[in-house]
Amino acid sequence: MADETTTHTDAAHATAGADAAHGGAEAGGLPQLDFSTFGNQIFWLLVALAAIYFILSRIALPRIAAVLAERNGTITNDIAAAEELKLKAQEAEAAYQKALADARAEAQKIAADTREGIQSELDVAIQKADAEIAAKSAEAEKEISAIRDNAMESVAEVAKTTAADVVAALGGEADAKTIAKAVDARLKGA
Amino acid sequence: MRIIPRLAGIEINAPRGSETRDIDVADDAHSEGALSFHPMDQFIVKPLFGDGAIHWYTPTNVTLWMALTVVAVLALLVFSTRGRAVIPTRGQSIAELAYGFIYKMVEDVAGKDAVVYFPYIMTLFMFIVLANFLGLLPMAFTTTSHIAVTAVLGMLVFVAVTAIGFVKHGAGFLSLFWVSSAPLPLRPVLALIEVISYFVRPVSHSIRLAGNMMAGHAVIKVFATFAAITAIAPLSIAAVTAIYALEVLVSFIQAYVFAILTCVYLRDALHPSH
């Protein structure tokens, strides 16, 4: 900047245009319009562009493209693998559900069979019990009627004896046949 | 920059100049015929070593900042991707983002058959965007603020696109200027307009970039000069900050605009029919 200051003051105080090197800038114009620097700028621009083009086309762009391609490949592979695993998981789930359903059906069948077996056994037992009960009650009834008959006979016997005794006690005379007839008639009438 | 020695000189004579005094000095300097603000000094091309004449091969500040641009390209696109990681690091993400951004632009705007020119467009974009950003560093020299640089960039695109057009389509490339969808009497007029607009392309293409860069940097410099005046220094520093933020945006947008216009021109060359 110091040298600029001197050249500037030179230009301002000395004859205008004497400073050839910085003519454009020092005449109050834009440094951009100082044509003496154009060759320099264009040369170095072309050098820089060539360098950047070389760097990009030889190193940077192929490398980035490779990285992006690799990433895309990895992502595609991973998605495919995930898809496959998902299918496998679905298959496994279907198999599991099937096994579960089978097991449940089996369990129901077993339960039904068991229930049926128990029911038939139960029926047989009930029938048997019913038959036994019926037989026992018939027997009991028979016994009861036998006892009742015996009782009636005993009653008639007692009544005949009692009647004979009563007739004898009253001083009557009655043969056993008549008394028995009268008692029987009386018992039937009762 | 040049204002400092002059003010210093004044202040030896005058006791601690007030703001009005400073402005008077500035006005005096202005009436003298030399700018007291020197927002354009940042654009002066200087030799790096010594103070000789500038030949085409002289290493200048242009050389330095273009070399830094190349270094930035190396750092961003080569050094950061050295890991070639499937899961990218931060630097590699930026490189991939830049790659994807320009690749998609070329594919979408210029067409699928234009991807062979992708390295060329990527070169232009990376050079412009990094040169723009490097130019925003304090004390930097902005190579893209020079019409000499942007005109070469623009002409490279213009010449390349025109050559591609003629190589691919021969004389059929001229149908770009013959609007077959327009009524016949209008076509010669439209052809004239199309031809003029075609030749204006490299001019607008290059001046847009240089103009944006130069204007932004000059405005920052003007506000920075005002920061020497105590009373308005906070305002001026705030303005510098705001314009700097705008310039960051402009730096990217101008590189983007340059690249997308290149793609548009390339599409015209590859598919000249309207």
From TrEMBL, chain A:
<keyword id="KW-0406">Ion transport</keyword>
<feature type="coiled-coil region">
    <location>
        <begin position="75"/>
        <end position="109"/>
    </location>
</feature>
<dbReference type="GO" id="GO:0046933">
    <property type="term" value="F:proton-transporting ATP synthase activity, rotational mechanism"/>
</dbReference>
<keyword id="KW-0175">Coiled coil</keyword>
<dbReference type="GO" id="GO:0012505">
    <property type="term" value="C:endomembrane system"/>
</dbReference>
<feature type="transmembrane region" description="Helical">
    <location>
        <begin position="42"/>
        <end position="61"/>
    </location>
</feature>
<keyword id="KW-1133">Transmembrane helix</keyword>
<keyword id="KW-0813">Transport</keyword>
<feature type="region of interest" description="Disordered">
    <location>
        <begin position="1"/>
        <end position="21"/>
    </location>
</feature>
<dbReference type="GO" id="GO:0045259">
    <property type="term" value="C:proton-transporting ATP synthase complex"/>
</dbReference>
<comment type="function">
    <text>F(1)F(0) ATP synthase produces ATP from ADP in the presence of a proton or sodium gradient. F-type ATPases consist of two structural domains, F(1) containing the extramembraneous catalytic core and F(0) containing the membrane proton channel, linked together by a central stalk and a peripheral stalk. During catalysis, ATP synthesis in the catalytic domain of F(1) is coupled via a rotary mechanism of the central stalk subunits to proton translocation.</text>
</comment>
<dbReference type="GO" id="GO:0046961">
    <property type="term" value="F:proton-transporting ATPase activity, rotational mechanism"/>
</dbReference>
<feature type="compositionally biased region" description="Basic and acidic residues">
    <location>
        <begin position="1"/>
        <end position="11"/>
    </location>
</feature>
<keyword id="KW-0812">Transmembrane</keyword>
<comment type="subunit">
    <text>F-type ATPases have 2 components, F(1) - the catalytic core - and F(0) - the membrane proton channel. F(1) has five subunits: alpha(3), beta(3), gamma(1), delta(1), epsilon(1). F(0) has three main subunits: a(1), b(2) and c(10-14). The alpha and beta chains form an alternating ring which encloses part of the gamma chain. F(1) is attached to F(0) by a central stalk formed by the gamma and epsilon chains, while a peripheral stalk is formed by the delta and b chains.</text>
</comment>
<keyword id="KW-0472">Membrane</keyword>
<dbReference type="InterPro" id="IPR002146">
    <property type="entry name" value="ATP_synth_b/b'su_bac/chlpt"/>
</dbReference>
<feature type="compositionally biased region" description="Low complexity">
    <location>
        <begin position="12"/>
        <end position="21"/>
    </location>
</feature>
<keyword id="KW-0375">Hydrogen ion transport</keyword>
<keyword id="KW-1003">Cell membrane</keyword>
<keyword id="KW-0066">ATP synthesis</keyword>
<keyword id="KW-0138">CF(0)</keyword>
Automatic annotation (TrEMBL), chain B:
<feature type="transmembrane region" description="Helical">
    <location>
        <begin position="218"/>
        <end position="237"/>
    </location>
</feature>
<keyword id="KW-1133">Transmembrane helix</keyword>
<feature type="transmembrane region" description="Helical">
    <location>
        <begin position="62"/>
        <end position="80"/>
    </location>
</feature>
<dbReference type="InterPro" id="IPR023011">
    <property type="entry name" value="ATP_synth_F0_asu_AS"/>
</dbReference>
<dbReference type="GO" id="GO:0005886">
    <property type="term" value="C:plasma membrane"/>
</dbReference>
<feature type="transmembrane region" description="Helical">
    <location>
        <begin position="243"/>
        <end position="266"/>
    </location>
</feature>
<protein>
    <recommendedName>
        <fullName>ATP synthase subunit a</fullName>
    </recommendedName>
</protein>
<dbReference type="Pfam" id="PF00119">
    <property type="entry name" value="ATP-synt_A"/>
</dbReference>
<feature type="transmembrane region" description="Helical">
    <location>
        <begin position="114"/>
        <end position="141"/>
    </location>
</feature>
<keyword id="KW-0066">ATP synthesis</keyword>
<dbReference type="InterPro" id="IPR000568">
    <property type="entry name" value="ATP_synth_F0_asu"/>
</dbReference>
<keyword id="KW-0472">Membrane</keyword>
<dbReference type="GO" id="GO:0046933">
    <property type="term" value="F:proton-transporting ATP synthase activity, rotational mechanism"/>
</dbReference>
<keyword id="KW-0813">Transport</keyword>
<dbReference type="InterPro" id="IPR035908">
    <property type="entry name" value="F0_ATP_A_sf"/>
</dbReference>
<feature type="transmembrane region" description="Helical">
    <location>
        <begin position="147"/>
        <end position="167"/>
    </location>
</feature>
<dbReference type="InterPro" id="IPR045083">
    <property type="entry name" value="ATP_synth_F0_asu_bact/mt"/>
</dbReference>
<dbReference type="GO" id="GO:0045259">
    <property type="term" value="C:proton-transporting ATP synthase complex"/>
</dbReference>
<keyword id="KW-1003">Cell membrane</keyword>
<comment type="similarity">
    <text>Belongs to the ATPase A chain family.</text>
</comment>
<comment type="function">
    <text>Key component of the proton channel; it plays a direct role in the translocation of protons across the membrane.</text>
</comment>
<keyword id="KW-0138">CF(0)</keyword>
